[in-house]
Structure formats: C-alpha cells, structure tokens
Amino acid sequence: MTIGIIGLGYVGLTFAIAAADKGITVYGVEKDRRIKQSLAEGYAHFFEPGLDDKIKECMNCRFFCVEEFPRDVQFDAFMITVGTPLFEQTRKPNFDYIASCLKVIENVYRGRELVILRSTVSVGTSRNVVLPRLRAMSEEAEPLIAMCPERTIEGKALEELTHLPQIVSGNSPQALEKARNMFGRITPHVIAAGSLEEAELIKLYCNVYRDMNFALGNVLNVAAQTFGLDGMSVIRNANEGYARSNIALPGFVAGPCLEKDAYILMNNMREGKSKDFIDSARHFNESLEDDVIRWAERKIGVPAQGKELLLTGMAFKGVPETSDLRGSSSVYIARRLKEKGYKLRLHDFVAKREEMQELNVGDVYSDLNEACEGIAGMMVLNNCKQYHSFHFTQALEGIWTLDIWDCCDELRGRKETDTIGNMLIEEKA
Asked: Which residue in 12, 76, 374, 397 has the fewest CB atoms around it within 10 Å?
C-alpha cells in the first residue's frame, strides 16, 4: 500500500510515521523549510516521545519527504492533514488550506484513489466543499472520499494511533472499505461511521465534550471563590472516593484543537439552545486568561515599575509534555501583558527556544533559576511534571507567584503563592 500525505505538521507527521512503521509506503509533501530541514536531519520539528527514533528507522525507506508527489508512483490514497484555522475577526473556519491541498494532488490524482480528509472541519464540509472539487478533477463518475478524523493527544500520538479506535467513513461502500482496510493495518479497532457527516460530528463533539466538562470545573472554581473558598480544594474534596463525582480540576482549556473546535462546530449549526450552551462554555473557559491578567495587575502592579515578570510554562499543556505553542493560553497572556507595558521573561522546559523567541514578547531563558533572578513576580502557567521536583535556588520571599495548577511543591503554602483556586477571592469579595 502506498499513500500520499499533504502536510507534515503534528497530525500528518505522526500518522505518516505510524503508517510507515506498519509497512505502508508514505510520501509526504511539505513546503515549510524548517520542517523539511528537521526531517532531513532525522528528527521532528516538535517534541513527541519516541517519534525521532521511528523517523530515523523509516526515513527514505518507507517514508519520503518530497516537494511534490512523483508521477510514476501508483497511490492508493491521499490524505489531507492540514489545520483549519479561524478567521481572527469572525472566528469562522478558513478552508483555504484544504483547497490548497487539492491543488497539490491535481497532477497525480486519477480519480480512483481514495481521498481522506483528516483535518477538523464543519459538518458537511467533506461532501459539500471537498467532493465537488474532486469531481471537477476526476476522470471517474464518482470520486472516493473518506472522513477519518484525527483523535490523538499530543505526547501520546504514536501509542494512540495503534491502540485507539479509529473512526472511518466514506461516500460509498467502496470508499468505506478502502478506508477500513488502510486504517486496519495500523490499529486493530476500526469503527465505521454511518456517513461523512457523522464522522465529522464525532470528531468535533468529542473535543467540545471535553471543553464543556472542563468548563464545569472552571465554573465551580469561580463560584467557590465568590464564597471565599478555594475552588481547587472544593473540587478535590468533592471527588475523593465518590464515584459519582468526577469534576475536572480548573485550568486553561486551549491548544490547537480545544481553542477552536467549538467554533468550527457552531459555524453552521442552527441557532438555538444547543449552540448557545456550547458557546457559553467556550467563552467561560477563555475568560480565565483575562482573570490571570487581572491577578498580575492586582498583585504585581501596572506595570511592574521596570521590574520583570517571569512566565514559565509557555507550551499549551504540560501533561503529557509537549513543545506546542499553538493556541496556548500562556502565549495569549504574554501578549496581553506586553501590551499593558510589562517587561517579560519566558521559560519552558520543553518548548523550543527559537519558537519562543519568535513570539517577540520577552527575553527567553533556558535555566529557570537564572530566569528568577531579580524578578517582580512569577506565573507558572502549565503543569509540566518537572515543576513538582524543581528546586528553586533563588530567594523568592516577597515575590508574588501564581502557580496556576498548584504543581510546584516547593512553592505550595507560601503566603505569596496563589493558584487558580484562590486567585479571584480578593477580586470577588
């Protein structure tokens, strides 16, 4: 089996390597110079456990990074894996990248290959946007298209690709069978959705379901603080040993999927209470970022009179570890604080230094203790496991710290350390 993948970002590259590791020949088209350079040197442009070793095993053997698909190769399928960004002003999905992918296969697509959409799209996009374009390119009566959504989490992608059930669909029995056959080589559990639209909705609502679950924890956390109570303590005690309570701990709900999938789902939903409920949950989760900025203004001052504020934990999450800055609440907070006049220092245990520098919001430090020298305050913004055992050699007495996830063991219990569970108590009193 030979497949072509358009886009070797996080979704495309992890799938390409997982497929190549199972004996499928994979050609990946990528235009980004940095990504191509990293692959030429045998490693990914992002952190993912185990991925670099697999790249070295498969590169130029079963996996090939190319400028364009070779015309002398017979492909069984083409897979579109590019992201679906939102227009900044309207928060409507932008499908331009998907349209560009179809142009990439124009010269090699014969109409008999299966075209797989793995990108996250609004319900109806596969049938109403992609399929008509394939018909215009096809020599066949009806092209074969499948919606097979990506559903892995960063930090466990290779494991989940081969163990999690994979959703497949097709616009015809032949398309569905081809999709089932391909994914069946990678994972033993393949689920056939009833239609392209069902597969699209499953992908979107799995993430919206998580978004809303997290929102319930965040709502309780804020409500607790209106009574002068620590929200994290309330949730932990409510959950302990009680099977009917599994309230999510409060925290940021962001990243390249959760920050936008609710908007992609709502894009063409009918107006009504379902859409309103989803919209409210998403906006409540987003509001936490502005709560953090108000904490800085209240505890550090506006701005910090020339002293620097340290933001550590810039990747969008810490468990599992990732280097991904896309959709990160930490990045949004840093940009807003810079706009307000704060001088910032940035640190992360995993995120790439050059990518943090490209944010252009503050000086980047590799050593956390060095970054702590002479600061006016510190925010620990993700829950990377390295914070738990980190030893601070710098004296932090009198330095206000916001440890969002309560994950720095050394800082716990200090009168100058707040968490997301109590950072609003003064404000709401």
From this structure: 397
